[in-house]
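[Q] Does anyone have a clean structure-token version of this?
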Amino acid sequence: MIKPGDIYKIAGIEFKIVKVGSEVQKNLMNLGHITIKFDDSDGDQNDDKLFFPS
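[A] Here you go.
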């Protein structure tokens, strides 16, 4: 389960997860992928996204 505070590593660089949309777990299990964002520019349309600090 992905949750705020977890660390996501890309090419050896670590990013702390700050927000997890309510649909992330379901999409990862059913679709095999999720959307990650480094800002909150979508406003309230964030249910299917994983966020990192900008």
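[Q] Thanks! Anything notable?
[A] The two ends are 23 Å apart (CA to CA).
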